[in-house]
Amino acid sequence: MRSKRIQREIDDLVAQGWRIEEETPDRVVMVDRKYGSVGSHILVALLTFWFSLGVGNVVWAAYNYVANSQRRVLWDDGDACPGCGAAVPATADYCPSCGEALERGVDPTDAITCPDCAAVVTDGSRYCPACGATLSSAVDTAS
Q1: Do residue 76 and residue 127 come from a single domain?
Q2: Which of 29, 58, 81, 141 shows the smallest number of beta carbons within 10 Å?
Q3: Nearest of 123, 109, 103 to residue 136 by alpha carbon
């Protein structure tokens, strides 16, 4: 699922004529292709029509299509609020900017629980962030 910040950026770029070229769970590649300006095509047509019967214009458009393409990669940051896009500390349960509840996925194989309150804590923590209990015994037994 995309964050609201990424979705807003995608919607803004699509409104400007960009297209989604590639999409993965953590990034979206947007592309904007150009064929060249009308004035440049008129100039190429005037200079080459007598010789190539318009093939120069096709070549000019193909060149612009390849050379003047723009790409933009939008990354979905894991440390950003899905609501407002603000930077969020890894230990926060709520966004400090907008207050939205954050869903934190914890790998159950790496999870250590607090012996007092059963909160999930990160490996190497000395104190529980939920209740403040000392975790040295929990970390030693998990290692």
Answers
A1: no
A2: 141
A3: 123
